[in-house]
Design brief:
Layout: E1 3-16, E2 19-32, E3 36-40, H1 47-54, E4 62-67, E5 70-71, H2 77-87, E6 88-91, H3 103-114, H4 122-131, H5 147-159, E7 165-169, H6 177-192, E8 197-202, H7 205-208, E9 213-218, E10 221-227, H8 229-232
Parallel strand pairs: 3-8, 3-9, 6-7, 7-8
Antiparallel strand pairs: 1-2, 1-4, 4-5, 9-10
């Protein structure tokens, strides 16, 4: 396999009042196409900053993120936006659903934004909705859905465009154990059955164990990369 995602010496510092707070202190790693990588660490370790850099949602102060041969640092904002639309599906902890749209429209809005309106795949839509147990919830707006159902809608939205990469930021952070299992099993299914590369940010050891690689972060640095999933269960 060839390297599909590469982070090279990523550094990011935020200004808080008069103080510079380093979020990332030189992060480097590679992800092969088709891998499921869990990135774990406590709050404040830099995981979410790394998520935004890997998704091209913000720029690093220095270093590079290279996705399928494209270096984000060399792309304009418009080019990075097109890259995200074409290749990356995002799953956020806070769901980010539009309150005025029903579940079906919230899922399909990803197709509309990507500009592939004429390329809808009803069979694939039905497949992911069925795997996530959302068939009967499609006519309902977010306010009529439980937190677990909202996260499943958000995951379906991330998958509906057949993205090459799925980036998930604490996808089970607000969920009970039953819904967490549904979401994690779907991420693993999308990785193993659909061939998507998955990077999941989490602080949960049980969630991290769904990946086939684990990278452990602390204080903006990688402290234990590429561990067997069982390793994380014995930390902190």
């Amino acid at each position: 396999m060839s390297s599909f995602i590469e982070a090279v010496d990523l550094r990011k510092t935020y200004r808080v009042g008069r103080i510079d707070v380093p979020a990332l202190r030189g992060i480097s790693f590679r992800v092969e196409k088709g891998q499921f990588v869990s990135i774990v660490g406590p709050s404040g370790s830099g995981k979410s900053t790394l998520f935004y850099l890997l998704g091209g949602l913000t720029r690093a102060d220095s270093g590079h993120v290279v996705v399928d041969g494209d270096d984000f640092a060399q792309l304009t904002d418009a080019e990075r936006t097109r890259m995200r639309k074409r290749k990356i599906g995002f799953v956020f902890q806070k769901f980010n659903l539009l309150p005025t749209l029903d579940a079906r429209s919230n899922i399909n809005i990803a197709v509309d934004i990507a500009g592939t309106n004429g390329n809808r795949d009803p069979a694939y839509f039905d497949k992911i909705v069925g795997l996530l147990g959302l068939e009967m919830r499609l006519p309902h707006r977010p306010s009529e859905l439980s937190g677990g159902e909202q996260q499943r809608v958000a995951l379906a939205r991330a998958l509906v465009n057949h993205p090459a990469i799925v980036l998930a930021d604490e996808p089970t952070g607000n969920l009970d154990s039953k819904n967490s299992e549904i979401v994690l099993n779907m991420l693993r299914h999308s990785n193993r059955e659909l061939g998507q590369t998955v990077l999941m940010i989490t602080h949960n050891p049980e969630a991290a164990a769904y990946g086939d690689r684990i990278i452990h972060m602390r204080d903006g640095e990688i402290v234990a990369p590429d561990q067997d999933p069982q390793w994380i269960g014995h930390q902190d």
